[in-house]
Every structure is written in structure tokens, then in C-alpha cells.
Amino acid sequence: MPLKLFLKPGACSLSPHIALEEAGLPYETESVDLARKVTASGGNFFEINPKGYVPALRLETGELLTEGPAIVQYIADQVPERQLAPAHGTIGRYRLQSWLNYIGTELHKSCSPFFNPMAKDDWKAAARANLERRLRHVDDHLGAGSAYLLGDHFSVADGYLFTVLSWMKPIGFDLSPYPNLQAFQARVAARPAVQAALKAEGLA
């Protein structure tokens, strides 16, 4: 049984989709209608993932792994030679986990109000202010001379950052004050694995 990624095109599940392409592992995907909680094949998504959201990765054993940062590290660890994540126990691995947590809690979640029809303007304004500060931090970090978050080598954290940054235009957030983020986004978008994931989701 190959790996199977349950996804919604353009959602945060794009991050593990990119990781799977970068890893070169055999895998399948199935899209999910998150409003109805139904998979493309007609299955009840709650029966697959009781949390009811993507991403979810079914392993070769049939077990299910959820939460994007955990999923991308699992994928990276299947192919250590691809160097998509530093080795366990190294300071590099903890830096990777730090970035994954930062992207997930400070960037990803700050985008949530813009996709929530119930969100009030004051909530969106607070979220926008948070994004401005958080993205400035990442822009400054990349401006220190590194091509990617951990240096000159692409990691699964970069795929997650790319995914979240891809939401900026749809939510009306201008990235022009962040030239290093713009350059990063173009650099990652040009990677063949990223192009393959985008094409598969109908986004290229």
C-alpha cells in the first residue's frame, strides 16, 4: 500500500504534497471536500480522520498521521539522503522544528480570519498586524544571505513557508515590502518538485 495524502488543493496540505514530490516516494492523493467532509471517492472523511481537516497521510501500514509539521518530518525521514530535514538529535533538527512551529502558529494561524466568513474586521486587522511583524522577521532572516530557512539547502520548512506565502495574494496581503520573501517564493516555485505538486493540484 503506497502512502496516501488526503488534501484540498491550495490548502496547507500543499506542504506535505511538495515534500512527497521532493522525496521521490511513491504516493497517491485524494482530495477532500472539507465543507461536506467527503472524499473524492465518496468516503466519509471523519471516518478517515476524526479531526475532519487536511492534511492527513495514510502510511504503508494503514496507520494515519495528521498535522502538517509531523507529516513533513516523517516524509523527510524516509529519505535521509535527500536532506529534506537535518538528522535527529542535531541542532539543525531543532531549528527545523522551530521554523515549522513558527510558520504553523504565527503565520498559518494568522491567516485563518481571512478564510473565515464569520471573522469581524477588528479580528482581521489584528491578524494583519501580526502578519506584518511575523513576515518582517522571516524577511530579515532570509536577507542575511541564506537561500532557504536553514541555509543553502531546501528543507520541508521551506515547502511549508511557500504554501503559506501563496495565500498572501488571495487574502489581499501585499508582499512588495518584503523583497527577500518575494525572491524566496520565486526560488521555491521554480523547483521541479514544487511545480509538479502545483500542477497536480491544478494551481500551476
Distance between the termini: 28 Å
**What's the alpha carbon Rg, rounded to whole Å?**
17 Å
Physical arrangement of strands within the biggest beta sheet: 3-2-1-4-5
Q: Indicate how many domains the architecture comprises.
A: 2
Major sheet description: 5 strands, mixed
Mean pLDDT: 97
Structural class: alpha+beta
Strand content range: 5-15%
- The general outline is globular
Regions with pLDDT < 50 over 5+ consecutive residues? none
Second CATH tier, the architecture of the largest domain: Up-down Bundle
Task: Kindly provide the name of the CATH class of the largest domain.
Answer: Mainly Alpha
What can you tell me about this protein's structure?
The protein has 204 residues and is an alpha+beta fold. It folds into 2 domains: 3-82 and 193-200, 3-Layer(aba) Sandwich (Glutaredoxin); 91-191, Glutathione S-transferase Yfyf (Class Pi), Chain A, domain 2 (Up-down Bundle), CATH 1.20.1050.10. Helix content is 48%, strand content 10%. The chain has 8 helices and 5 strands, in the order E-H-E-E-H-E-E-H-H-H-H-H-H. A 5-stranded mixed beta sheet has the order 3-2-1-4-5. The protein is globular. The chain starts with a strand and ends with a helix. 34% of the residues are buried. The mean pLDDT is 97.
